[in-house]
Amino acid sequence: MANQLVGEANMAIVAELIEGGADYYCVVDGAENVRQLGRFFAARGLELQVLIELGVSGGRCGCRDAAQVEALVAAIAEQPALRLVGIEGYEGMIAGGDEVAAVRAYGERLVETVRALQASGVLACEAPIVTASGSKWFDLIAEAFDQAELREHYTPVLRPGCYVVHDHRLYAGAMAEVKARQPRLEGELRPALEVFAHVQSLPEPGLAVVALGKRDIGHEPDLPLPLRLYPLVSQPGAASTPVDVTAWRTTHIMDQHVFLAIPHDAEMDSAGIAVGDVIAFGTSHPCLTFDKWRRLLLVDEALRVQESLATCF
Fold it and tell me: What are the structural domains of the chain?
């Protein structure tokens, strides 16, 4: 779990998982959390595997410097129920200036820190974990981890979660940058998550209101992206030929409605637009769409359902 385990109710859930045989890890970045975890898991007669989170200045969680890491190592050593097994980080909060150089330096810092901890004898496993990498800079973190010593004596773990479905703007742009940095890289990630909704109303020229809202699709950092329109067909079961509508623009999103700005000539061309048409939307940053659906449908090119997938999000 690439996060701190906080709160006794949550600790109890994890304790039950460990008692059931789960090989569980979480991260720590503060002495008080370490003391709370140590007391709870000692009382349950269990050991908890933890990784120290290495943060960045102005970022999210994590130790900011070597002194904080050293103090946290000492706090963990005072808790017999805790086993320190590695280092965790997240470079996605790095921004401003030469970001590529900063991410590379952060990857090196992670590696240097886990090596120093291993040399000091405080790590309680033979192959300590070093893990990082969001979905934007995974190639740079892979470079830092791609060392024979790490592969032979450590457990490097990349965890860019958005690779599962990718997206149509935020990570699409990041993938283009990865390709530019890594010209020998074969293939690329392609967007695989779309949300479909009906045109609900055409209340005035140039405006379409679609039955899609914040309850249905993520909208940060970009609004939903119109991709294709499937015109309404009069004959039941007949196929609808999709029309490219990437030139259309989402201007506003509400709980259950999206406003689309339609180019002036769109209502006059072969596509047209009518109430009842279906529009496929893409996402920019897919995570906040997963939590809105209990199931996703895996479809083929003709939109025939191949599998129903539980999100468990």
Answer: 8-159 (3.20.20.10), 194-310 (2.40.37.20)
